[in-house]
Structure formats: C-alpha cells, structure tokens
C-alpha cells in the first residue's frame, strides 16, 4: 500500500526536478541577486557584492527607460495578441473548410515561419524593409509612393517589428486551432444543419463556442510570449530607433549583459515575472466554465 | 519570443553558480603547460594562426586561437570573469578596455615591462600607451591602430564644382548641401546613427574636448554646442539620409552619399566591392578649421588576470609587438601597425592610403576611458543627438537631459 502511494511521485520526480532546477531555482537566485548591487566586478570577486535591499526596485520605478519599455510591451500585447488570435483562427477556419490537396499544402506553408530560424527570418525581413533597397519600398515606388522608413521611424518601427512577430507567431496557433476544429463532433454540425442554420450561423453559434478552450489556451500563451517579446526587435532593430522597440526583455538584456548590472536586471526580471504571473492568473480566473467539449 | 525571462534568469543563475564555484577553487586561465589560448576579435582567427606560426616554430609554444565576434564579447567576458577561466592573451577594443580592466580581467603589466623592452611605452606613437593606461596601471599594450578619415568621391565632387575635399566642417556642410541638391534621394554626407565617436571628433575639431580638467565628462561646452549645431545642421539641410538601415558602403559606391568619415576597413570594402571605382575616390584627414584631430580606435592586447603562463604570454606579446609581426599582420589582415617603427616602414608608407592614415594617426586621440563608453556614455550621447534630428525633440531639453545623465562620469 505504501509503495503504491509513492509510485506516482517517483514517476513525476524527473519532471519536478527539472522544473525545480531550471524554473524555480533561477527565479530564487534572481530574487536574491535583485537585492544586491551585483555587477561584473562582483562576479570576479564575491566580496564586491553588497546587499542593497530594495534599492534596485526603487531605482527601477524611477527609471524612465524602464517605464518606456513597459509602455512598448503593453502596446505590443494590445496589438499583437488580438492580431495573432484572430489571424490564426481565421486561417484555421478557412483551411478546415477546404480539404483539398492544395489546402493541405497550405497548412505546411503557414507553419514554415514557426520552424524557420529567427536570424534567417530577420535577415530576409531586414532586406524587405530596407529603406533604399528593400522590396516593399520598391513596390511602393512603382505606384508613386515615397520611401517609407519601415524600421527607422520610431512609430512605424514598432508595427514593422510586431508584424514580423505576428507572421511568425501564427503558424503554431493555426495548428492548435485546426486540431481543436477536428475535435468538434460531426453530429453538432449535422444537428445545426437540420435546424436550418447556415454556414455563418453554425460557425458563430456552434463552432466558436466549442473552440472556447483552444481560444483561451492560445490567448494565454500568446499573451505570455508578447510580454516576453524579445527576438524580433533584438535582431531587426536592437531595440531602436531611439528605444522605440525596446521591450522589457530587451531592456533587461541590455542592463544585464551590456551594462553588467546584474542586480538591477534581476530586479527588472522579477517585476516582469510578477506582471506575467498576475495577468495569467487573472485570465485563468476570468475564464467562464467550459461548454461541453 | 518565448521564454526569455526564464532564459535571462537561468543565465544569471548559471553565472551565480559558476562564480561561487570559481570562488572556492583555484581554477585559472589555460593549463600550466599547454597551448596558449588567445582571443582574437572578429573573423581574423585563421589569419592570426598564420601570424603566430613562426612564433610556435621558434619557441615550441603552441597557440590556440579563438575568434570572438565583436558583438559577442560582452557575454564572453561575463562568462569568463564569472567562471574564472579565460584565455591567456586577448585582444581588447579600446572602447571596452576600461570595462575589462574594471572587471579585474587584465593582469597589470608594469612589473614585467622591464624584462620585455619590446613592450615599453616608447615603442608606440606618442601618448598612446599612456592614454590606454587604466587607473595609472599598464593593463595592455597597443596591438593595431585604427583611425577615422574623410572618404570622398572625387569624381562626384568635381562634377559638382568642388575641386578639393572640404578642409573644415563648415566647408563640409556647404559642400554636402551642394551635393544633396543633385536630386531626390541624393545626399551629400553620411552620418552612421550608431557612430558615437563622430560627435566627439567634431567637438575635438572645434578645439574642445568632452572631458574637463578634472577628468569628468562634460558636454556643456561651447565647442560641443558647435558640434551639435553641425550634427543637427547636416540633418536640417537634408544633406544626410535619415534611415537607420542605410548601408554606408553601398551608399558610397552608388554615390548617394559621396562623403563620409570612416575607418580603413571601409577602404577595403570599397576596393573589394567596386574595383572599377579605383581612382575616383580618395581619403584625407578629417575636416577641421582649428584642429584635424581624429579618433584613435585600435585594439590592445592584454594578459588574462589569472593565467598560469605569464611568461609565455609575455613572450608571445613581445613577438606580436615586433616590427616583422606587425608588418606581416598588415599584409595578412590589413590592420595598421601600432608600433611606431612598423608604421614608419618605407614599404608601408608607399601606399598613398596608408600615408593619409598615418598622418591622421599622428593627430588622433583615444575616446575617454569612461567606465562604459559603448553601453552608457556613448549611447546616451547618440540617443540625445538622434532624438533631436530624427524625432524633432527639443534641443535644449534633450541636451540638458544628456548633461544630467553623464554628470559624474569620470575617467578616474
């Protein structure tokens, strides 16, 4: 009897250990480091590290660059999450309706961005966006539009960078929606058809409610990934121009690894961690109980 | 886009663990008896192996070369400092020298210089060795020289009635406006938006400095104000492209921007990419009515602080500072020597480009060795200037913010 009750723990222990080592421990270490003035000379010699209490958090609250990064991240979330959810849901619904060979080829086509290396992606998009030699500006010049500064204009750069991330982020979510769509029992649609519901009505009143959990899942994971937005601005603009695409993650990276302020960066990463935790928790609480699925 | 926080946290944690391990062991750079590990910046690792082959032959000391990309050096340094195991010898860009020294990564060399006459300060151009001391200690020796000169397209300048390259910044601004008037999408000059030394060079050439008598950074001077006028004026005239993704080599070759201040590496790119332009472009000293001072931007070599092979490292260092090695490095890799005797070499001087470079090197200064030029002071300076020219931020308010941000930054 005793052994039986231990067995499940034995089975989950590898996962728990990994989670502790690579999830909980780093957060704990960062929490400890965030209370110190750890920098590169502290790394060289432990004796140079001093306990500074909550000084780093106070400094963060007074740092206009941090607030700017928070503002940018907020904008990315507000623009990016609905964009990814709506675009991938729309594409998934259309792909699901047409079952031909071409549609199946399209499925892999939409998934390509998700499996392509970010550096290759950024190189290509960098060329597309280039002001002098880029394809976009060339096409626009054909219809007489002046050069557009895709990555150099502080406002436009935010959207240019976000567009790449949206393009890259949809692939995986389309697959999730397609899988969820295939899980909807055929009987429901037949019943709706017998009741005289049209295509549009069936989608709105039967399919979408049954996709509730998938939409919820995609929204939560997409929100988290936008809150940690890093790769695209890092490779396309390095947070520029003039900090316009500096997300919180980029800000932390620069503070930590370019300015070597590990204590300060750790404090910032804990703030970001707290924000993500709170937002995810609120999303989980707000979720209405599922329809039968 | 995913898991960055975890990644950052994990990296910090790994550093912490590594540092604590390093604290309780006597781990150090390289093995006691084994190959010397050398970090060489950029992609010239293979060339460096070729350079040190005679050294290995002569002394039997193997040299293992690690090429570190320029933009990965910060992370490399952090990891090496944290783990306590670095290379034996390493190349350090001058703008990173203070950061390395402050981290305690470099071995002070003063006690060893007596036994190695090849490394003495008087082997190098005036002031360079002194200027690259940190806190009064010699932590590195000059290795390659680099400077900034004015590149110009003589053919385009002539077509537009400009007979000689501009000799002062005011002339340059006028000529740039003339050249920009060639038509839509044409400019006169190019300002790289990432080039933090450029405004400093301009300040020097108006006869000022960004460091006050006490060694503190001071941008609140009339000369810097003149430099700001020039910088913003070039934008206001429409003489420079405003997009940050402008390609300086392509811009010069295509003639869109027929003038710019850049380093010898640009000459190489132009010669490689557009040999047909030969004879249609030239270099000259940076403009300046009072001074023609430019940037001294080379790299130094330093010995890792806890290497167990100090003597072997110093031997290699001395070999690399020999006239032969310096000249052969120029031949293999195109980087200018730092040793005076090599710079004055007749064969080297017969190259008209090198003649200009060495004239300019004779009148050039290193950037002030503040704690973090690239990450802090320099980027604050660029952010301020670019905010004024690109987003139309208020000049006085932006500069006041820059003064406040850089107050108290010192080379001491």
From TrEMBL, chain A:
GO terms for cellular component: plasma membrane. The chain crosses the membrane at residues 74-95, 107-128, 159-181, 206-227, 262-282. Residues 70-283 form the ABC transmembrane type-1 domain. The keyword Coiled coil does not apply. Gene3D superfamilies: MetI-like (1.10.3720.10). Keywords: Cell membrane, Membrane, Transmembrane, Transmembrane helix, Transport. It is a multi-pass membrane protein. Pfam families: BPD_transp_1. It is found in: Cell membrane. InterPro entries: ABC_transporter_permease (IPR051393), MetI-like (IPR000515), MetI-like_sf (IPR035906). Belongs to the binding-protein-dependent transport system permease family. This is Sugar ABC transporter permease. It comes from Pseudolysinimonas yzui.
From TrEMBL, chain B:
It comes from Pseudolysinimonas yzui. The keyword Membrane does not apply. InterPro entries: Bact_solute-bd_prot1, SBP. Keywords: Signal. It comes from the Bacteria. The keyword Ribonucleoprotein does not apply. PROSITE patterns: PROKAR_LIPOPROTEIN. Gene3D superfamilies: Periplasmic binding protein-like II. This is Sugar ABC transporter substrate-binding protein. It holds the Pfam family SBP_bac_1. Residues 1-22 form the signal peptide.
């Amino acid at each position: 009897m005793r052994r039986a009750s231990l067995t499940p723990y034995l089975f989950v222990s590898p996962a728990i250990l990994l989670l502790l080592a690579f999830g909980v421990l780093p957060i704990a270490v960062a929490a400890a480091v965030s209370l110190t003035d750890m920098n590169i000379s502290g790394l060289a010699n432990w004796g140079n590290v001093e306990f500074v209490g909550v000084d780093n958090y106070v400094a963060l609250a007074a740092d206009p660059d941090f607030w700017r990064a928070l503002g940018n991240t907020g904008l990315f979330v507000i623009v990016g999450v609905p964009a990814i959810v709506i675009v991938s849901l729309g594409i998934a619904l259309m792909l699901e309706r047409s079952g031909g060979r071409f549609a199946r080829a399209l499925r892999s086509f939409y998934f390509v961005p998700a499996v392509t290396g970010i550096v290759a992606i950024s190189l290509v998009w960098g060329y597309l966006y280039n002001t002098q030699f880029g394809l976009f500006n060339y096409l626009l010049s054909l219809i007489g539009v002046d050069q557009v500064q895709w990555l150099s204009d502080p406002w436009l750069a935010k959207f240019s960078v976000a567009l790449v991330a949206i393009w890259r982020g949809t692939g995986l979510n389309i697959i999730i929606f397609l899988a969820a769509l295939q899980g909807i029992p055929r009987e429901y649609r037949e019943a709706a058809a017998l009741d005289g519901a049209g295509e549009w009505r069936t989608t709105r009143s039967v399919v979408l409610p049954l996709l509730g959990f998938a939409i919820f899942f995609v929204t939560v994971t997409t929100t988290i990934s936008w809150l940690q937005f890093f790769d695209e601005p890092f490779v396309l603009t390095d947070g520029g121009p003039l900090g316009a695409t500096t997300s919180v993650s980029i800000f932390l990276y620069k503070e930590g690894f370019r300015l070597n302020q590990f204590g300060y960066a750790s404090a910032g990463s804990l703030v970001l961690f707290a924000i993500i935790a709170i937002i995810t928790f609120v999303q989980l609480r707000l979720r209405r109980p599922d329809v039968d699925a | 886009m995913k898991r960055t926080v975890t990644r950052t946290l994990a990296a910090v944690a790994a550093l912490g663990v590594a540092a604590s391990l390093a604290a309780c062991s006597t781990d150090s750079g390289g093995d006691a008896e084994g190959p010397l590990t050398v970090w060489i910046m950029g992609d010239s690792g293979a060339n460096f192996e070729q350079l040190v082959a005679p050294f290995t032959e002569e002394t039997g000391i193997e040299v293992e070369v690690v090429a570190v990309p320029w933009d990965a050096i910060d992370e490399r340094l952090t990891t090496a400092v944290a783990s306590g195991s670095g290379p034996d010898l390493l190349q350090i860009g001058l703008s990173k020298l203070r950061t390395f020294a402050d981290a305690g990564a470099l071995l002070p060399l003063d006690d060893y210089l007596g036994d190695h006459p090849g490394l003495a300060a008087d082997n190098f151009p005036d002031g360079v060795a002194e200027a690259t001391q940190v806190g009064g200690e010699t932590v590195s020796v000059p290795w390659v020289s680099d400077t900034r000169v004015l590149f110009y397209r003589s053919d385009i300048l002539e077509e537009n009635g400009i007979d000689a390259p501009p000799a002062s910044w005011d002339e340059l601004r006028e000529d740039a406006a003339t050249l920009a008037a060639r038509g839509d999408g044409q400019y006169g000059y190019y300002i790289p938006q990432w080039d933090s030394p450029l405004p400093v060079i301009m300040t020097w050439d108006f006869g000022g400095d960004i460091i006050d008598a006490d060694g503190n950074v001071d941008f609140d001077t009339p000369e810097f104000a003149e430099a700001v006028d020039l910088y913003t004026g070039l934008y206001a005239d429409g003489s420079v492209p405003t997009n940050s993704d402008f390609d300086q080599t392509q811009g010069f070759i295509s003639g869109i921007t027929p003038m710019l201040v850049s380093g010898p590496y640009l000459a190489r790119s132009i010669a490689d990419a557009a040999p047909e332009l030969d004879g249609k472009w030239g270099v000259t000293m940076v403009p300046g009515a009072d001074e023609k001072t430019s940037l001294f931007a080379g790299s130094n070599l330093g010995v890792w602080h806890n290497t167990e092979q100090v003597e072997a490292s110093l031997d290699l260092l001395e070999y690399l500072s020999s006239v032969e090695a310096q000249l052969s490095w120029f031949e293999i890799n195109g980087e200018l020597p730092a040793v005076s005797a090599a710079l004055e070499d007749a064969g080297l001087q017969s190259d008209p480009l090198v003649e200009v470079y060495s004239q300019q090197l004779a009148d050039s200064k290193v950037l002030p060795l503040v704690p973090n030029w690239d990450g802090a002071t320099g980027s604050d300076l660029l952010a301020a200037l670019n905010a004024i020219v690109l987003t139309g931020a208020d000049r006085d308010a932006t500069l006041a913010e820059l003064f406040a941000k850089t107050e108290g930054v010192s080379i001491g």
